[in-house]
Amino acid sequence: xxxxxxxxxxxxxxxxxxxxxxxxxxxxxxxxxxxxxxxxxxxxxxxxxxxxxxxxxxxxxxxxxxxxxxxxxxxxxxxxxxxxxxxxxxxxxxxxxxxx
Length: 100
Ligand SMILES: [Zn+2]
What we know:
By secondary structure, this protein is mainly α. The protein has two domains: 14-53, Orthogonal Bundle (Arc Repressor Mutant, subunit A), CATH 1.10.10; 56-98, no CATH class. It has six helices and two strands; from the N terminus they run H-H-H-H-E-H-E-H. Bound molecules: zinc ion. Residues 6, 8-9, 11, 41, 43-44 line the site of zinc ion (ZN). Residues 6, 8-9, 11, 41, 43-44 line the site of zinc ion.
């Protein structure tokens, strides 16, 4: 996930990631793509140039899950053993469904 704003000047750059990737696939150089997106400051350009989209790669790995029950006072290690490992995609969906 790309940061929404440039760390230095706070310009919104998060919405430019997908158009940037598309321009690179259309055989434009990174320099051309960044100028076409209106990014002239090097602080904003580095946000896209140096970004690695690792979300899909992280989704391939399982991680332990633990209960978030407020009444459960057992240590985190025990809570992990109780629930066992779950797929991280299931975990993300579970957390997201709580906020919908
Ligand atoms: Zn900037």
